[in-house]
Design goal:
The chain has 155 residues and is an alpha+beta fold. It has two domains: 29 residues; 124 residues, Pnp Oxidase, Chain A (Roll), CATH 2.30.110.10. It has four helices and seven strands; from the N terminus they run αββββαββααβ. It has a seven-stranded antiparallel sheet with strand order 2-1-5-6-7-4-3, sandwiched between helices. Strand 3 and strand 4 form a beta hairpin. The longest helix is centred in the first third of the chain and has 25 residues. 23% of the residues are buried.
């Protein structure tokens, strides 16, 4: 039988347990869903599910230098909405990704080659089964400018 004290202690610990579970789930998720925020703060129609690396409280993404994610930053749209989880391709999810844990973030380019190398190691560990194909593409693309690395910092 639960005593009142046991109930109160369990109830007090529950938010911490749920927050810890959410952080673990976000770090282990293979995908995030990203949409730039327009200048009026609304979510853009440009959305996608992408690989990411969570590191030091930031989410890192490697993308084509011509992708809308990179173009948005170049146009001064440096805020984004991020949903973390995996519900498959966003177009086929019927908006299910919008029910995932989410937050707003500011976004900037990462241009330091040493930082690229360090973070690509993390990507390689996280996506080990696909990294034989994608690792060289990311690395070569960052080197020749056909890809960029973006850093999303929780707002």
């Amino acid at each position: 039988m639960f005593t009142r004290r046991q109930f109160v202690l369990t109830a007090a610990a529950l938010p911490l347990a749920l927050a810890t579970t959410r952080v673990i789930a976000e770090e282990e998720s293979p995908l995030i869903y990203i949409s730039p925020l327009k200048s009026d703060g609304t979510v853009s129609r440009c959305q996608a599910e992408v690989w990411f690396l969570g590191d030091g409280g930031h989410d890192y993404v490697v993308t084509s230098s011509g992708a809308w994610r990179a173009e948005a930053v170049r146009k001064g749209l440096t805020q984004a909405q991020i949903w973390t989880g995996d519900v498959g391709r966003w177009q086929r999810s019927n908006g299910a990704y919008r029910d995932l844990p989410s937050h707003q973030a500011s976004v900037s380019f990462v241009t330091d080659a040493a930082e690229h190398a360090r973070l690509l190691e993390g990507f390689g560990q996280k996506y080990a089964s696909e990294w034989g194909t994608w690792g060289p593409r990311f690395q070569n693309g960052l080197a020749d400018g056909s890809r960029v690395m973006l850093k999303y910092t929780k707002a």
